[in-house]
Amino acid sequence: PELFNLLGLPSYDREDNENRFKLSVDIDSLKGWPSLLVDDLERLDDFHLDLIYRSREDYIRLESYTPAIFLGKTNLYEPQLYYDIQKDAGRASFGIDSLAMGNNKYPPVELNFELEKDLLQFAVLSSSLSSLSDFSNFTGELRITDTSAIFNINSGLLGLFNEFWSMSKGNILEVNRESVLVKNFILSGKEDKQIIAESLSEKQLQIDLEKFDLDIVNPYIPIEAIGLSGHYNARVIIENIFDLYGFNVIAQSDDFCINGDSFGKAQLKARLDSLKSDIRGTFTIRDKDLSMLSKFNHYLHPANGVDKKFTQVWTELRNFPCQ
Question: pTM above the 0.70 mark?
Answer without folding.
Answer: yes
